[in-house]
Every structure is written in structure tokens, then in C-alpha cells.
């Protein structure tokens, strides 16, 4: 017979990850930026990253939550950059 170790730790991490996901479900917050100003876009990205960190602060020691937070930040970064690009394209099409 063999003993599986670490199951308690994994169970705790999964439980915390579930709570972390519930804490960010819904409205995370909002940011405003000027799509024509790279500094404004970067400030908006930093602001959403801080919002994510703030919401998930209690789970900072959990590697599952840390990985989730990094993925979420990357998705939000891409979303902001995409929206800025769309706004610039739409603005350039005006007469």
C-alpha cells in the first residue's frame, strides 16, 4: 500500500480558487482611457491589474489563484489594447 501526500493541500488550494473566482464574478470595475494616448492606455492596464490584485489579495499565496490572476490580467490587457485600436480605427473613418 502507498500513501498519497499533498491531497489536503491541493483540496485547500482548489477550495480557495473557487472562492477567488466567486469574488471576481460580475463587475470587476471600470477604467477610462484615451485611445490615442499610449500613456493613458498603459495607465488603464495598470489600473485593471491593480483591481485584479486587490480582489484576489487574500489568495496571493495560492499558486492556482496566482496563475488565474495572471491569465486574467493578460486577457484584460488584450481587451484594452483591442478597444483602443477599434476606437482609433472608428475615429479615423469619420469625415
Characterization of the model:
There is one protein chain. α2 (38-56) runs antiparallel to α3. This protein has helices at 7-24, 38-56, 63-92. The protein starts with 6 loop residues before the first helix and ends with a helix. The model has no long low-confidence stretch (mean pLDDT 88). It has three helices and no strands. The longest helix has 30 residues, at 63-92. With 95 residues, it is mainly alpha-helical. The protein is 71% helix and 0% strand.
Structure characteristics:
single chain, 95 residues, mainly alpha, 71% helix, elongated
At a glance:
71% of the residues lie in helices and 0% in strands. It has 95 residues and is an all-alpha fold.
Oligomeric form of this entry? single chain
Query: Level of helix content?
Result: over 70%
Per DSSP E runs of 2 or more residues, the count of β-strands stands at: 0
Task: Using the alpha-carbon principal axes, give the shape.
Answer: elongated
Q: Proportion of β residues?
A: under 5%
Could you give a short account of the major beta sheet? none
Distance between the termini: 77 Å
Query: What is the count of DSSP helices, taking H or I runs of 4+ residues?
Result: 3
Mean pLDDT: 88
Amino acid at each position: 500500500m502507498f500513501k498519497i501526500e499533498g491531497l489536503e493541500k491541493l483540496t485547500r488550494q482548489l477550495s480557495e480558487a473557487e472562492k477567488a473566482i466567486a469574488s471576481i464574478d460580475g463587475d470587476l470595475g471600470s477604467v477610462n482611457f484615451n485611445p490615442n494616448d499610449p500613456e493613458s492606455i498603459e495607465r488603464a492596464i495598470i489600473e485593471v491589474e491593480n483591481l485584479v490584485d486587490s480582489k484576489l489579495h487574500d489568495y496571493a499565496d495560492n499558486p492556482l489563484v496566482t496563475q488565474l490572476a495572471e491569465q486574467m490580467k493578460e486577457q484584460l490587457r488584450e481587451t484594452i489594447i483591442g478597444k483602443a485600436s477599434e476606437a482609433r480605427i472608428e475615429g479615423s473613418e469619420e469625415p
